[in-house]
Amino acid sequence: MSTKRGADHTDRGPTFSGPGGRARWPGFAAVREAQWGLAALAVLVGVGSGLGSIAFRWLIKSFTWLFTGHEDYAGAGHAANPYVPWLGPFFVLLTPVVGGLLYGPLVDRFAKEARGHGVPEVMLAVAQRGGRINPNVSVVKGLASALTIGSGGSVGREGPIVQIGSALGSTLGRLAKVGEGRMKLLVACGAAGGIAATFNAPLAGVFFAMELILRDFAIEAFGALVLSSVSASIVGRAAFGDVAFLRLPAFHVEHLAQYALFALLGIVAGAVGVGFTRILYAIEDACDWAWRGPEWLRPAVGGILLGVLLLALPEMYGVGYPVLENAVAGGYTASFLLLLLVGKIFATSLTIGIGGSGGVFAPSLFMGAMLGSAYGAVLQTLAPGTAGNTGAYALVGMGAVFAGASRAPITAVVILFELTGEYSIILPLMLAIVLATLTGKLLSHDTIYTLKLRRRGIDLDAPAPDAPLGGQPLTEVMEKAPEPLLSTCGLAAAAEFLSLSSHGVLPVTDAEGRFRGTLTARAVAEVLAESPDTSAGVPRTAADLVEEPHPLTSDMSLGAALHVLAPSPGTGLPVLDPQDGLLVGWLTHQSALRALHPDPPSGSGAGQGEGGHRR
What we know:
Layout: H1 26-33, H2 35-68, H3 95-110, H4 119-128, H5 136-150, H6 158-176, H7 180-199, H8 202-214, H9 219-240, H10 258-290, H11 298-312, H12 321-328, H13 334-353, H14 361-382, H15 384-387, H16 390-406, H17 409-420, H18 426-443, H19 450-454, E1 485-486, H20 491-500, E2 505-509, E3 515-520, H21 521-530, H22 542-545, E4 552-553, H23 558-565, E5 573-576, E6 583-587, H24 589-593
Helix pairs in contact: 1-2, 2-5, 2-6, 2-7, 2-9, 3-5, 3-11, 4-7, 5-6, 6-7, 7-8, 7-9, 8-9, 8-17, 10-13, 10-14, 10-16, 10-18, 11-13, 12-14, 13-14, 14-16, 16-17, 16-18, 17-18, 20-21
């Protein structure tokens, strides 16, 4: 215990001093460092996300009733608003304008990052900002998105609830003063909990967070995300019941030939997903070019155009789940389905372009359902005996368009299964989603989420702009490679050389000096401990145990190399010449840190080799 010079010396009870004399309470330390502390925080984030989801869905329902007098105007046709019946169906010309006058100033004044679809901002916070998110986002995003959807904005609610849950996770992490790694994990827990509670999809919440937010599948992360997702699902089911989010009839694959038809649908859906992405940002660019007024007024003025579109196609109002269910049930003609597909692309793009707040997941499901239903209807006409049920193509199209736009195939498969509760169509669903993902990757380098960031000059795989590490070329950072083992080296000799190596791993080359891979001390020790040297089939040389790690090339930047180096067990990775594949260096976390101090103290031994060639 200590007192500051000149401070009041009154006894105030025991204090606990950490580094620098700052008070550290044992309870907070345990939460920050212990595994049970992470589990407790994950559960708290999940419960908070579940409660946030309940509040968010209630806000959407309330604002929709307030603006339209209907629970969901998308399925009401051109019905009038019972609150202003004299306006007839023309009231939809005003609702986006009024909504824009409410959420426009709210977003502009309190949390500008609440504009748009939300997920890219969370991805950026995890990748480059240490998981730090403005705590105002959870409130502002909830209100702004509910107002946007309730007043006719043709967007979804997954983006907002991801951002809301993630902001809650970030805020809780700051209060508990956790490290950066756990802060990022709590942000992902918020995203998982939000998805799980909103769509009654706990597995989808976990994989959404791992595949899109963390972009990693670590065991510790999986456990925390499961706890958060399950907690949020329990809260959500207590409020909404344990039922599938979408009510769809059962579908089955009736002929093997249908798999070829589903595969073709996957390719087309992937192209539609990429097309939606490009149109979305093209319309956003057009809105940026055309608007010259204050940003807070932009949603209201742009709402005039959105109102005209809603008057022509009221099915575009809000999220549009009733229309989606009708399409899957075969309630529309093929031509009208294609009209709804095009209308949704432009309605969603315009909503976001004028400054609205909402997600793109639900719109992509809507587009996929329209595309798949139209595709199935055409097949019913051309090959009625082979095509099968039209609704099956709608369901597959939903997942495939989302996968083509987001390139998150695992999430797409799991979330479609959980949203519908329909397992019988899992095989064609997986086939189409994989093909849609490959098509999307072939047509576009970026996804619908990463393109928003790249347009702002942000590369998620690059270091943060103000980061001290990352921009250096690898040739300036790598150290001299350990002298390699020959591939014909016996294991006993290899064990001796590995015991003298500071890396615990050595490169392996053939007699001509070509890089073959690496040999780890662990692999050699396991073989020598488990089998006698005379046993048949036992590895005898380095070549028998060689591993092929992800190689780095000398033309890479340190930032790109660190993404490959991060999962390695701390022994480093070989650096190869990009032209001839020869071993030219070695990168470890220590050598990366030396880039901060390029002139190490005398005698540090940085970058020194380990002796001669090992025979």
